[in-house]
Amino acid sequence: MKLTKERIVAAGMAVFAEVGYQNLSMRQVADRLDTHAGSLYYHVRGKEELLALMADRVCRQAHDAGTEALAALPPAATWQDRVEAQATALRRGIAQHPGGAQLLAESPGVLSTGALSLMERLLRTLLDAGLPADRCGIAADTLLSHVTGFVLQEQNQPAAPPAVTAEQYADLLARFPLVMGASVQHLGQDEKFVRSVRLLCAGFAAPA
Asked: Annotated DNA-binding ranges (predicted)?
């Protein structure tokens, strides 16, 4: 099969899912494609560019998913609903790729049309809602950073919480009554994410 940039990016995503951000190498990607590493450089200049292309692919897929989510909203949907739809689609899009959040968080600082598309649409949503223009940029950046960080935490959390004996719990409760007590609700990840986005929206709309 002909070697193309798209095939190289797909192979890079597969290798990345297995070995992570730091350990990915062009040689591993070449092995996945059953070719020589030198052949890759006709299409991709090196690991940095490959990582940027991989991050861009994740963003473009998330943008497309966001387009579908927005189209499914009822006509009476509020701007908060539109922000939530975009954030939820982005979270799901990143989470589909093992290590996807780390990829976006650590990818090289280069221009990405996928990331720019996500930011452009979110900015338009906030501006159309009537939010002051001088706060829309930081609001959009904060929301996108929150989504990436949320998924990063999800993807790095252990499969099961640490075991705690009754004696240990009683000691922790005495030392940290707010954290361990009823003050902190123990919600599922989906509910926690939705509530966090709504809190951010409330802050975006609050008077200066």
From this structure: 25-44
Tell me the two tokens of residue 158.
């252990």
Q: Which two tokens stand for residue 162?
A: 């640490």
> 112-121, pLDDT tens digit by residue?
888 899 999 9
Task: Judge residue 125's burial from the number of C-beta atoms within 10 Å of its C-beta, 0-12 exposed, 13-18 middle, 19 or more buried.
Answer: buried
Contact 11/33 with Cβ under 8 angstroms?
yes
Quote the pLDDT of residue 108: 58
- 153 phi and psi angles, rounded to 5 deg: -65, -40
Instruction: Give the burial class of 102: count Cβ atoms within 10 A of its Cβ; 0-12 exposed, 13-18 middle, 19 or more buried.
Output: buried
Model confidence over 63-104: pLDDT tens digits? 999 999 999 999 999 999 999 999 999 999 999 888 888 888
